[in-house]
Write a structure and sequence with these properties.
Blueprint (H helix, E strand, L loop, with lengths): L38 H8 L4 E2 H7 L5 H13 L3 E5 L8 E5 L1 H5 L1 H25 L28
Antiparallel strand pairs: 1-3, 2-3
């Protein structure tokens, strides 16, 4: 799958076309947020295909079920996503899909992601300085297993 800007390839470790956002993904810390902290990531997950709640939750591991549900309700209310019943699914089977309004945000998100990657170090330094912390640089990001990611700037899907 290619992002709206056409220069990023997204491959999920799960073998599907959805991006998987690991805990160390800096996207949620960008100053430009759509639909709250998780909105842009949800829109990116939905760009290829509609998804059920559980699938979205697996691709956004740091988000709680409560926060994801609240965010999806808010995004549905704002017209970014549609919620629809899944034919033949159990009683509460629904999936979420990108609306045209939500799809129109994909190029904006792509631009914000590129900007964020280009300025990630500067953002981290400013946040570190503002915390009143020592003169030491911010700690190296770690994955949930404690290892250092190969490239923090690419910790989240493109």
């Amino acid at each position: 799958m290619t992002s709206p800007g056409g220069d990023f390839n997204v491959t999920s470790a799960r073998g599907d076309d959805l991006p998987a956002f690991p805990a160390e993904c800096p996207l949620s810390g960008y100053p430009i947020q759509i639909g709250g902290r998780w909105g842009a990531m949800i829109l990116l997950c939905l760009q290829a295909q509609p998804c059920r709640f559980g699938v979205l939750r697996r691709h956004l591991p740091p988000v709680s079920a409560k926060v994801l549900a609240e965010t999806l309700r808010s995004m549905e209310r704002d017209g970014f996503v549609h919620r629809r019943p899944v034919a033949g699914a159990p009683r509460r089977g629904v999936e979420y899909e990108l609306s045209e309004l939500g799809r129109s945000l994909l190029p904006v998100i792509d631009h914000a992601r590129r900007w964020g990657r280009a300025h990630l170090g500067e953002l981290a330094r400013h946040r570190h300085d503002d915390d009143g912390a020592s003169e030491e640089p911010p700690p190296t990001p770690r994955t949930p297993s404690g290892s250092t990611p190969k490239s923090f700037g690419k910790a989240c899907p493109n």
